[in-house]
Amino acid sequence: GAAMSSSPKLSATPVFKLRLKPSEEVPRIKGLKADAVGSLTFDLERDGSGAITSGEVIFYVNYDFHGSVDITGLHVHQERKGKNGPVVINLGVTTFSDADGDGNVTTVVAGVTPALLQAILNSPRDYYVNLHTTVNPGGALRDQLRSPQKR
Questions:
Q1: What's the chain look like in SS3?
Q2: CA distance linking residue 79 with residue 76, whole number of Å
Q3: CA–CA separation, 98 vs 125, rounded Å?
Q4: How far apart are the C-alpha atoms of 18 and 105, rounded to whole Å?
Q5: 7: pLDDT confidence band, cut at 50, 70 and 90?
Q6: Mean pLDDT across the chain
Q7: Distance between CA atoms of residues 14 and 52, nearest Å
Q8: Which residue, 13, 12, 17, is CA-closest to 146?
Q9: Are 146 and 125 in contact (CB under 8 A)?
Q10: Which of 20-24, 40-44, 89-93, 132-136 has the lowest mean pLDDT?
């Protein structure tokens, strides 16, 4: 893209701040001392009218399981708080082990449809981020999306 934009509002990059917790899982996971913080960033290309034409999703998360963990997946799911729903963005994490359970995942996903990116921006509370492990294959840490900040 060009270094300058004629419209600052079109170049704003939505950033969803994340705080994933076991208490947000459905059903709630008791006794798991773990959490994660991070961000989900939409790097968007827009046309002259402001409509999204393409975009990448950049996911950055610092997790702490206070002990060995096997992480099996990281996804954006579609469903409101208190319910489980289908994966709509697979953040491309393949299973890996972390001996001390304290680490970082950074991944970029291209090819997400403009319609899905716009739907998440229109109604972020209908989507959540879920980190899955071998011990909790349905999800160990979860956070519902809220309105994004602009960067």
A1: CCCCCCCHHHHCCEEEEEEEEHHHCCCCCCCCCCEEEEEEEEEEEECCCCCEEEEEEEEEEEEECCCCEEEEEEEEEECCCCCCCCEEEECCCCCEEECCCEEEEEEEECCCCHHHHHHHHHCHHHEEEEEEECCCCCCCEEEECCCCEEC
A2: 10
A3: 31
A4: 13
A5: very low
A6: 91
A7: 12
A8: 17
A9: yes
A10: 89-93
Residue 10 reports pLDDT greater than 80: no
Condensed to tens digits (0 to 9), the pLDDT of residues 52-77 reads: 999 999 999 999 999 999 999 999 99
- In the numeric block, the tokens 């947000």 are attached to 24
Q: How confident is the model at residue 5 (pLDDT cuts 50, 70, 90)?
A: very low
